[in-house]
Design a protein that fits this description.
The protein is mainly alpha-helical. It is globular, with a radius of gyration of 12 Å. α1 runs parallel beside α4. The mean pLDDT is about 90. It has 4 helices and no strands. About 50% of the residues lie in helices and about 0% in strands. It has one domain. The termini are far apart.
Amino acid sequence: MSPTVDDLRNEIRRAVGRYERVESTAFTKEALAAICDAVDDDIEANRLPPKSRMRAGIRHRVGLADGDDPDRSGGPFRKAELEPIATALRNE
């Protein structure tokens, strides 16, 4: 049986040192910042960029997008995007 979206999100959270969530929720800004750090996407340390910018950077770093333009990156991660993110973090 393949992992659910919640399973994948929690695996990613554990991989970057964040806590698991019991309920189904998207990533917080802090969790996205931790994922950015884990995939070597540079963000400003003193002020977190918008979620769309961080998601775009993550997509770019794991090979899901050609660029990191937040206007073209789409919204929250879908299952098909969470799987390569989790794989990239497993290989870290």
